[in-house]
Amino acid sequence: MIEKAVEEIRDFAEKTGLAEKRILVLFSGGKDSSLVLYLLKKAELNVSALTFFHRWSWRETLSWAMKFTKSLGVEHYLVDITEGLLREAVGRKGPVCIHCKRAMLWNAKWFALNNGFEVLAKGDNANDKIIGALLDQCEGDIRLCGIPKIGIPFFRPLIKYTAEEVEALAEEAGIKPYRMYEHARRRQWREGCPLQYIDKEETITPELMDLAYRVNYEVSRIARKRRVRISVRVPSFTIMAWNPDEETLREVSEVVRRFKGDPHAPAGKT
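Predicted structure:
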């Protein structure tokens, strides 16, 4: 299956001219973007990785991402978007992800243009809700599409693969991203960062961002130990979990009670 996917990418690159272009993969360290990087490298394309991080990013996943790109022999750029995220998000209502994606998109555009990259690549698959307004504007194969006002094309090599097919490809390639055991938004692994757990109706503040990080980092230690996916929304302190046992819920509830009593309580050390 991997060889077929690589061959499809190689053929597509030859037909579209991608084989002669410098491609920058927006690389989060998750399964989809890791698979994209792996496939493009195997297809012998001129590919590099760009990872955005901020003050509240999981350091464990960033460390794994750096090791992964090193193993592939891929050039890897790290860009801190803390200040841009604060400008976009503070004073507005959630979800934070909308504001963060805006900051990342424009940073990606200018980073690519200023560093000689001609194409941006993403890990979107067929289950992602992007086949619609954005891709309706594509004039050809939706795997390669320009976005208005961005001025640089996006390559989505996985857009015709379902999440299940991506999972199978990643498993065949031996890609096993570091897991924080977040609850995330779907049963498929959909981790990101703790800021997504700020309650949507809340006005975003740096204090809430700090709280979301501290609470969820503490909870992730329990979740990783017990192999149960759990996250906590703030400031409502709503516990979200996939099939937890009573002991796990009791331990997480103790963490929640501690932070309710002292929102500035420090996260424990691993």
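Summary: The first strand starts at residue 22 and ends at 26.
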